Amino acid sequence: MQTRVVVGEPWDVPADVLAVPIVREEPLPDVVSAIDRRTGGALSAYRTLGELRGKPWSSALLPGGETGAAWVLGMGVGDVAGFDRLTAVRLGAAIERRLTDRAVSRLAIVIPDELLAVISADEAVELVTRGVVEGSAEPALIYRPGQAAPPELEHLTIIVGAGDAASLGRSAERGRIMGEGANRARRLAQRAANDVSPEVLADEATDLAHEHGLQVDVLGPEQAAALGMGMFLAVGRGSSNAPRFIVLRNGAPGATDSRGRLLALVGKGVCFDSGGISIKPADRMEEMKMDKTGACTVIAAMATLRQLAPDLPVMAVAPAVENMPGPHSTRPGDVIRAMNGKTVEVTNTDAEGRLILGDAFTWAERNGATHLVDVATLTGAVARALGDQVTGGFATSQPWWDEVAAAGARQGERLWQLPLIPEYRAEMDSTYADIVNSGSAEGSLVKSAIFLAEFVTRPWAHLDIAGTAYYRKAHPWAAKGATGVSHATLVELALTGA
Ligand code: BES
Ligand code: ZN
Ligand code: MN
Predict the structure, then answer these.
(1) Which protein residues are within 6 Å of ligand 1, measured from CB?
(2) Are 271 and 320 a contacting pair, CB within 8 Å?
(3) Burial of 45 by CB count in 10 Å (0-12 exposed, 13-18 middle, 19+ buried)?
(4) Same fold: 2-186 with 193-495
(5) In CATH, what is the architecture of 2-186?
(6) Pairwise CA distance, residues 294 & 301, whole Å
(7) Residue ranges covered by each domain of the chain
(8) C-alpha to C-alpha distance for 182 and 188, rounded to whole angstroms
(9) How far is the C-alpha of 411 from the C-alpha of 394, rounded, in Å?
(10) Tell me: domain 193-495, CATH 3.40.630.10, correct?
C-alpha cells in the first residue's frame, strides 16, 4: 500500500471511496459541508432522516457526486472534543473494515481541521493511517483464505487542510509501518499451537531478523540448562515440543541509546498454556494458543524499530515454551532454581508465565539491559478487573512507568497502573524455597507482579495484556481475535532513545 498526504481540497483527489468523519455537532465542519453540497445535499438529508448523526462507527455509503471519488463513506466519530488518539486509530480501522468485500483499491480519508483540537495534523495522519492498516487484519483468513476480507488497498490518501506536506507524508509512513508491525504480531499470535511451536516461533523470529538485519540468538534446552535457567526449563519440560529462548538484538555489543540506556523488550511466549499438571478447565482453553502474544509482540516490534530507527540499540527477549501435562512435567510442590539463584516452590503449574519471564529478566540484565518492559498474557485476574479495553501495568520505578504510560498515550493505547504492595510479598513465602509461584487468590493480580519483581534489579515495567490481547467478538474497528495491543506503545517507548 502506498501512502500519500494531500494538503488541500478532498474533491481533487481521485479515489474509489472518499471517507468523511461525521461528528455529532452542527454545523458540520466546513470541508464536510462542502462535500455535502457536492453530493447534492445527501449527507445532510441523511442526518435529517436520522442516519449519520455522528454516533461512533455508524456509517453510510453514498454516490460520490461532484467529488473525485466514486463513493463517499460517512463514518460517525462522536463529539469533536472526543477526537483523540484512540479515536483516530479506530476511525481508520472502522473505515477499512466497513469496506469489507467491496471493490476498493484507492481509499481517501479527509480529516477536517475542526477535528484537530486535541491532536495535531501529524498525529492524526499517523494514527488514522495506522488504523487503516490495522483494520485490514483478518485472523479468520489465516487458515481459510478466500473469505470476506477488508480491501487490499493500493493507495491510501489522507487529506488535511493545512500543514507541511513533507512532514505529514513521513507521519503517514510511520503509521503504515507501525500498523504493519502490529499486524505481524497479531498474525503470529493468532496461529494455532499445532502450527507455531516454540521451535517454529524461533524460526519465524530468525527469518524476520534476517529480513530486517537484526542479530538473532536462539538457545535450546542444553544452553538454557548451562545458564541455569531452571524456571524457564521447568515450564517447557512437559511438552515434546522443546523450548526455545529467543533473542533479537540491534546495535553493536555494549552500545546504548541516546540516553545511555539499553532497553529490553521481554515477551511471554507460551505457545500453548494447558495449565500443565494444574490443568485448566476445558472451557475456552483453545484461547491459550494466544498465550504467546507477548513474545510475538516484542519480536514484531524489533522489525518495526529497525525500519523506523535503524541504528537504535535495543533487544527483545522472548522465552518460548509449551505448558503441557505429561510424564516429564513439573509437578505442584517441585522446588526449582531460577537463573538468579533464587529457589521457587511451584504451587501451581498454571502460573507459568512468571517463571519463564523471571529467567528472561535475569538474562536481559546480564546481557546489558538497563531498562526493562515486559508484555504478557499473564493473569485472568487482569481481564476480570479491567476487561478488554485497558491494559493493566506495574512498575518498580515511577519515572519509568510514567515514560511507558506517556508512550502508550501517544499511540492511543490505554494503560492503567496497578500498585505493587510490599506487604503481599510475605503471603508468597514458602517453607521450602525463597518464594511460591502462586499465592492465595486474594490480590493475585498484584502478587503476579510481586513475583516478577523478585527477578529484576533495574527499572522495570510490566504490561499484563491477558484482557486486551484478543477480542472474543468483533468490533467495528477490529475483527475477533488478536488485537496487536502494546506493539505501538513498545515501539514509541523505544523511539524516545533514538
Ligand atoms: N495464560 C494464563 C492467563 C490468561 C487467562 C490469559 C485468561 C488470557 C486469558 C496464565 O498463565 C494463567 O494461567 N494464570 C493463572 C494464574 C494463577 C494460577 C495464579 C490465572 O490467571 O488463573
Ligand atoms: Zn499462561
Ligand atoms: Mn497459565
Answers:
(1) 273, 287, 291, 348, 350-353, 377-381, 383, 438, 444, 466
(2) yes
(3) middle
(4) no
(5) 3-Layer(aba) Sandwich (3.40)
(6) 10
(7) 2-186, 193-495
(8) 10
(9) 19
(10) yes
Q: Which amino acid is at 323?
A: N
CB-based contacts of 200: which residues, under 8 Å, 6+ apart?
none
Binning pLDDT at 50, 70 and 90, where does residue 285 land? very high
Which backbone phi and psi does 248 adopt, to 5 degrees? -115, 135
Q: From ligand 2's centre to the CA of 214, what distance in Å? A: 28
Mean pLDDT of the 186-192 span: 98
3-state secondary structure 151-218: CCCCEEEEEECCCCHHHHHHHHHHHHHHHHHHHHHHHHHHCCCCCCCHHHHHHHHHHHHHHHCCEEEE
pLDDT digits 0-9 by tens, 416-443 = 999 999 999 999 999 999 999 999 999 9
Catalytic residues: 280, 354
C-alpha 219 to ligand 3 mean position (Å): 23
Pick from 268, 292, 379, 446 the residue to mutate for probing ligand 1's pocket: most ligand atoms within 8 Å of its CB.
Answer: 379
Cα(411)–Cα(478) distance, integer angstroms: 16
Rounded Cα–Cα distance for residues 250 and 242 (Å): 26
Largest CA distance in the chain: 79
User: What ligand 1 atom has the least distance to the C-alpha of 469?
Assistant: 8
Cell numbers for 261: 540506556
pLDDT for 76: 98
Please give the single-letter amino acid code of residue 452. L
User: Degrees (nearest 5) of the Cα angle 427, 429, 432?
Assistant: 150
Instruction: Report the relative pairing of strands 155-160 and 106-111 from DSSP bridges.
Output: parallel
Q: Give me ligand 2 centre to Cα 198, in Å.
A: 14
86 contact partners, CB below 8 Å, separation of at least 6:
412, 413, 414
CA of 353 relative to ligand 2 center, distance in Å: 5
Residues measured by CB to lie within 5 Å of ligand 3, the ion: 273, 350, 352
Alpha carbon nearest to ligand 1 atom 3, residue: 379
Query: Do the Cβ atoms of 366 and 450 come closer than 8 Å?
Result: no
Of ligand 1's listed atoms, the one at least distance from the Cα of 280 is 13
Judged by its nearest atom, the ligand closest to the C-alpha of residue 285 is 1
Q: Residue 91 — very low, low, confident or very high, per pLDDT cuts 50/70/90?
A: very high
- Across the strands, what pairs with 267? 375
Name residues whose C-beta falls within 8 Å of residue 481's C-beta, 6 or more positions apart in sequence: 139, 140, 186, 190, 470, 471
